[in-house]
Amino acid sequence: MAEKKTPISKSSTKKATPKKSAAPKSKSTKKTTNKTTKKSKGRFAQIRQRTLLGLWRLFWKGSIAVIAVLVFYVIYLDAKVTKQFEGNKWQLPVQVYARTMDFRPEQYLSEKEVLWELKRLNYSEVNQLSRTGQYVVEGRTIRIYRRAFEFYDGVEQGKVFTLNFAGKKLASIVNESGRRVPKARLEPVQIARIGNDSKQDREFVPLDKFPTILKDALLVVEDRNFYEHHGVSVMSILRALYTNIKAGRTVQGGSTLTQQLAKNFYLTRERTLTRKINEALIAMILDFRYSKDAILEAYLNEVYLGQAYNQGVHGMGLAAEFYFAKPVDELEFDQIALLVAMVKGPSYYNPRRYPERTRERRDLVLRLLAENGYLSTNEYRQSLERSIKVEPLNRNRQQSYPGYLELVNRELKELLPDQQVINAGVRIFTYFDLQKQTAMEESIRKGLPYLERKYKTEKLETAMLSVNLEKAGVSALVAGRDMRFSGLNRALDTKRQVGSLVKPAIYLSAFEQNTHSLGTLLEDGPLEVKDSSGDVWTPENFDHKFRGEMPLYEAFSKSINIPAVNLGLDIGVHKVAETLNELGIQQQVEQYPSLLLGALELSSFDVAQMYSTIARQGRYQPLTSIAAMTNSVGRVLYEHRTRSEQRFAEESIYMTNYGLKRVTKDGTAKRINLHFPSIQLAGKTGTSNDLRDSWFAGFDHNTVTVAWLGRDDNKPTGLTGSSGALELYIRYLKPLNPQAIADQRPDGVRWAFVNPKTGRQAAPSCGKVIQLPIRREQFNPAPTCL
After folding, report:
1. 11, 260, 363, 645: least surrounded by Cβ within 10 Å?
2. What is residue 13's predicted lDDT score, i.e. its pLDDT?
3. Is 383 a residue whose pLDDT tops 70?
4. b (16+ CB within 10 A) / e for 38-70
5. Which of 233, 236, 443, 500 is an active site residue?
């Protein structure tokens, strides 16, 4: 059966038409989409605006922060720069000077001594004086153009004076105007530069002391616009680049002197952008804060110019001494050019190792000086013709006198305990006499091998020192056989038995009590001494002989043991111990009878103190090596005052010294008289048990000298004081100019004739008599022949 169709109305048909119902829906969707898009764009714009605003805020806040950090960093750099630049820029070495050679009319002095000193100071002998550091010799006249020098008591400019000699003395001193003057002096020799922890060495020189040509040479090569730029110069960098390209090699640097100073003074040598930025900032701070002259002065004293063993050589002042052994203001044009040439690279342009390349660089500096009008054509050509001549490196070796410098260093620590003061540049003026030191070293260098060959001994060691009697200043000291070895200081620290060196204290004690005279008879016979514990001591003479009664002066000069022991026991061992302490022995002296034969251990320094008091007519003054000290600007930090204390009667000392003079005339040291027959000297030999120690202590009018010989293992040497130490003393005196002792007789002493058999005063006609000094109260104006 067919399905029945249902009829569809129009209205139904229209509603079913999709076109008519879809049109209004599409229009609504578009409106909605547009609204959404607009809202999205608005939100994006807001986000972008907020982001940009945030970034802007972050930018300007960050910029402020960066600027603030930069400002604070510059402030920090400024504080760092000014603190170091205005304070102690460098740790300066301690500079040690020898004694000043002083001149005065009627002084006991020879031309030979003066010429020796001038050569050690590197003065040049010329026919006509033209500048400092020169001298002329005409007959017995020496004309000197002395250098300017800052002595501890003030600065003295360069001056000309003439020394006229007659006989064995300096007759007169004449100044440049031809007038006689009462005194003159030479600058002292620098004997050492004691380094510090910085491992840098420099000689500070003020800007006005540098030669103008040196400053011009440095600027024309390193920084032509130094006085125009503000610490950093772009034009200098560009010009250096152009010059180097044109030359095909590096002949100029781009950094200014101020930048180089900043790098050397404040920064490391690493090659990084950070360091270059710091270098530029510091250079600009320096230029803003300080004058150009102040910066140039710092650079001239800071620049590195080589290496002296473990110490860097900094500054033109020290470099002049290091390479040419002369002050910077005495350098020739070619020498100045050489120093400026080395600024570029002291190792690469080392004149000792690479003279060819160094000369090439030096000649370039000379050419630049000539091209810029600082040298004439003639000066330029003459300078070019000169070869590279520098001092050998070993000449600059420090610590050349380690024994003496050890004494200086010990005193320095006591006088200036503040290390910061020392690091600021202390200058020490000592009593060191280079002529005496040289003579002492030579006597040891030749004397010890001679003694070892002659007496068939070995491994001898020694200690020697000399003392300036006027100032009580140690003028020379050798601490051992190896004179350049800074180990055990035998002169200061090795204590050995002194033997007969103690005997003058026995005789002096007797003279002080006014119970004995030089003519008093003393017993020389067998002797036994029992101490408090019951032990028996039996002293003997060196030759094991006895002489019966003998006068005191003979027992003294011939160093006979038994008479000295008898005398010491008579006056009391405690009195002898007190006398030793009064003479300057600081340690406690044990009061045993064996003390009377030298059972007392002393150092050579102790013995020198003891004999200095005797030679100074009984006036005690502690020995020292330092005369004065100043800081780097010349302010006196310490000055030695020569205050002495009279500890013994002049009469007692006069008679003691008479005995010591006889020792060198007809006693145990009479060999001295063979070498110096016309010069009155005094001294005493000493020998310890088993010939372990050989001693001699002697003096002339100006100097006390002590010599010790022995072995470090304290084994016998086979030497007496006469055969060993005396040999060194004689060798030491020969190249010097010893002055005869000229002591004045005190009012309380008279000369009298004494019978050596009776020990009593006698008339000159009473047979064999000897003239001796005796006390006034003991003098008999009309003696008889009893």
Report:
1. 11
2. 41
3. yes
4. eeeeeeeeeeeeeeeeeeeeeeeeeeeeeeeee
5. 500
Give residues with Cβ within 8 angstroms of 441, minimum separation 6: 478, 483
Residue 323 phi, psi dihedral angles, 5° rounding? -95, -30
Structure tokens at 133: 């550091």
Asked if 698 and 679 count as a contact pair (C-beta separation under 8 A), the reply is: no
**Residue 475 to residue 101: CA distance in whole angstroms:** 12
Contacts 24+ apart (CB under 8 A), 389-397: 390/323, 390/324, 390/351, 390/352, 391/322, 391/323, 391/324, 391/325, 392/352, 393/308, 393/352, 395/325, 396/308, 396/321, 396/322, 397/309
Annotation marks residue 500 as catalytic: yes
Neighbours of 752 (CB within 10 A): 23
pTM of the predicted structure, to 2 decimals: 0.83
Q: Is the pLDDT at 638 greater than 60, yes or no?
A: yes
DSSP label at residue 210: S
Q: Which residues pair with 468 in a beta bridge?
A: 473, 703
In the set 117, 203, 222, 651, the catalytic residue is 222
- Give the pLDDT confidence of 580-596 residue by residue, as tens digits: 999 999 999 999 999 99
Q: How many CB atoms lie within 10 A of CB 523?
A: 18
Residue 83: what residue type? K
Question: In the prediction, which pLDDT does 633 show?
Answer: 83
Nearest to 695 by CA among 738, 729, 659, 660: 729
Q: Which pLDDT score is estimated for 786?
A: 66
Whether 222 is a known active-site residue: answer: yes
pLDDT value of residue 425:
83
Q: How many CA atoms lie within 13 A of 609 on its CB side?
A: 23
User: Locate tokens 């050349």: which residue?
Assistant: 400
Selected residue with higher pLDDT from 226 and 559: 559
